[in-house]
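Run log, item B.
One chain of 72 residues. Sequence copied directly from the ordering sheet:
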Amino acid sequence: MPITTAAKRFEIVVNANLAVNGKDVFEIFNGSTSCSIRISASTSLAAAWGFNYYLKYVADGSGKNNWMNGSN
């Protein structure tokens, strides 16, 4: 799958009101479309942390979370 197609499966939302006691946070949800991921974060840096967390711990390459190739 081309990178541009895979990138469209991510929704990134930055909302400063999500901060907890002045600390950065992120949340990961199912996106608004099939096979999409939504990352909501208090800052753009927190969104990058959320993206990294998703790639490292959720889309772990085992095949069980193999949505990027459309097999989901």
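Observations after the first pass:
- The radius of gyration is 13 Å.
- DSSP finds two helices and three strands in the chain.
Flagged for discussion on Thursday.
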